[in-house]
Structure formats: C-alpha cells, structure tokens
Amino acid sequence: MEQTLTRERYRIYCEILRQELIPAMGCTEPIAIAYAAALAGQQLSGLPDRLRVGLSGNIIKNVKSVVVPGTGGLRGIQAALAAGFVAGHPEKQLELLDGLAGEDRETVRTLTETCDIRVKHLESGHIFDIQLEAFRGEERARVRIVDSHTNVVLVEKNGAAVFERPIGDAAEEELSDRRELNVADIVRFAEEADLEDLRPLLERQLNLNLAIARAGLAGNYGANIGRVLLSRGDDVRTRAKAMAAAGSDARMNGCELPVCILSGSGNQGITASVPVAVYAEHLGADHDTLLRALLISDLITIHQKTGIGRLSAYCGAISAGCGCGAGIAWLHGGRYREVAHTVVNAVAILSGTICDGAKSSCAAKIAMAVESGILGFEMFQQGQEFRGGDGIVTKGVEKTIENVGTLARVGMLETDREIMRIMTE
Length: 425
Hints:
This protein is of the alpha+beta class and 425 residues long. The protein has helices at residues 7-20, 28-41, 57-63, 77-87, 102-114, 171-175, 183-192, 199-218, 225-230, 236-252, 266-283, 287-308, 316-331, 336-350, 361-381, 397-411, 413-424; strands at 23-24, 50-56, 116-122, 129-136, 139-146, 152-157, 160-164, 259-260.
C-alpha cells in the first residue's frame, strides 16, 4: 500500500471534486428537464405550443412529486418543462431557475395549461435519458441529455443538428476516473491536500447547504422532519440529523435557495456536509480541520455512488450518510482504520433502502442515513463491528463497497421497475 498519494491521483481527486461540487437550484432531475427545455427554447421564435417528451423511469420517479423552484409551488414534469422555456438562459445550467419573477410564474402556469404536453416512459437502456421535441407552429427543436444532468448530446433545429456528439463523450468521463477512488487514498488525500486548491469549492458547499438547512428549520416545508427531531432534544446527534433533514425538506418543497450537489444530488450534497459541520462546531474543531473532514465525507460518498450509478432504486442518501459518518470519525481523531470500520458498519445498517422519488419523505430517510453513519462510528468507538459474512459485509472495506454497488446496480433493477409501476399506476 502506498505511503503517500501519487501526484496523478492527487490531481484526479481534485478534478473529481471540481466536477461534483456544483451549485443547483432545486431538485436536480426537474432542473435537468428545465435545462433541456431552455436549450430547445433557444431554437424557437417563442414559447412552444406542443411538447413531446421521453424520459427514463428514474427521471419520471424523481420529478413526479417535487416542487419546481420559481413556479409558485407547481410540481412535476409539466412545471419543469414550462419553467425551463420561460426562464431561458441555458448557459446557467442547473441554476437557470434562479430568479424567476412574479409575472414569469404566471407565464409558467399558463404554459402548463395551454401547451399540448405529452410524456412517455423511455426504455432506451440509459438510466438517465431526456429526449425533448418542441414545436411552435412549423418550427421544431429537439434536445437530448443522456447519462448525467448536463451531458447534452443533441440540439437540433428544424431537422438540422446545431450541436451533436456521440453518447458517452461526457466531459466528466474524460476528465476523471472514479475507479481511482479508494478509502485509504481518500484519507491520505484529506490529510495531505493543499486546502487552497479546494477551499472555494468546500466553502461554497458549506455556505449554501448550511443556509438551506437553517431556512428549512425556520420555515414550514414538507413534513418538517427537522423540527420534529428537535422537539425530542437538541444534542449534537439530533441536531446533525435535524439540520440535514430540514435542508432536504426545504429543497423538495419549493425553497428558492441553491444547494451544492454531490454525485448529481442536492440531498447527497446536504447529507455529506451539514452533519459534519454540526459536529465540527460541537467539537470546537478549527475551520481547516472541518474542511479536511468534509473532503473525506464527500469522496467516500462519491466512491460508494460510483458503483451504484447516478440514479437507482437504492437511496443515494444512504451513501452520503456513510460519508458523513466517516467525516465525523475523522473529526474525532480517527484515521484510515476508524474511517474504514465506520463505513462498513454504516453500510450494513441501512443498505437496501429504496429510492421512490424526490419528495418530502427524503428528509426522513436522510435523518436515518445520518443516524446510520453516526452509529457506525460509535459502534467502532466501543469496540463493536459487523464482520465479513454478516449479510453483504465482506472482509475489507473496498470489497464491501463493491458489494453494495452490485446490489444496487444489478440486484435492485427489478425493484426499480416495480417502484415505477406502483408510482405510475
């Protein structure tokens, strides 16, 4: 095992974080639909009168019930499409709905009511696939986004390609190789990193995600899971869960504050960062120590999600809960051994929690995910651990993480189909 991180691996880890830690306004799947709409809108002379939209099942699942920011509380696919056309400015990508004004909201609502919008479930072989065809009179525009939220592979105007590239040429795939991630090197990276290389990214993640967590506690969003938790006490463990849950409740239910996403998910970005910040404040850790713990949490989360995939029947918040548990273990003085055992323990507790779309209950799942991360660490503190052979746990943290990826990516495919059937019927 290497004693220091190679220069190339250091570069890759920095690049992974730059690709992952980006701001987004609202739940990322509706915003990706809005982004496709904004791109199509550039090719038309005005708002469309007909839309034909094909979406992969996991996108339908994650858009069906969630509030689209800037729409005055509208939910679902039609609202996301209309908001994207009205907002325009596709160059803003996942932040394009930031700043929709009052009269824009009326236009969005009118468009959802007057435009002939037809949506079908795609089975293209891609977990993430948006195919949009927009018409205005005789004008026609087509857009396709595949595999990740901003990977545009086609923009077409009246049958002629304005932009096109082969599927699989996503910039993020060319820039970094997630297979380079492993727990030992993640811990080394966090300890050796020059924080000035990453400080702006990590500061933005903390500032955005703590702001929406505080707004969630102060407001009235969704099921108010954060306030329910705090009604039972205000110790650090409860506060860490409550703030993360509150951030999700706010985000799922129309709070117009951006978040910093992770693995393509705002909920994962919140879960990986907010509890670590709460524990750092409780322990009196200095700011740079918090940032290093955040590196561990973020990269452990990404490492687990690499084998699972962007969208799955497996709840992504569980991976982020394990990540925040690892960051909390590091804040308490733990290093590789403590972090690895925390991850294995946490994985064993909640693996198999389903993702049934973006909505208020995500906040409760996040609270439980954070609990599993904290419990995983506290188990190891007291000399307790799950061992190889206990269910999907295998000897070695890397093999156990691999097992989770296989479970989610392969074993839960039929689960995903059944979730889709239940939600659409």
